[in-house]
What does this fold into?
Amino acid sequence: MITVETKVVVTQDHKLTVEVPAEVQPGWHHIVVLIDDRSGSQPKEPPLNFPSYPTGLADPRVTLRREEIYGPDGR
It folds into this structure.
């Protein structure tokens, strides 16, 4: 299977011509044409803008350090 990705122009009579690589043998072939309808003159969407909020510890007395969870020997 050979994948060919290229840009094409569809003419007013709704035709296009595709040039294939040299390794494609002459004869009948099964092909799939995928038309990306998102391309063209449609503007790109702006990136998402997520607001940031300052956060802190819920309880400043609890830091969840390893020593506090497992003890001084780390177990």
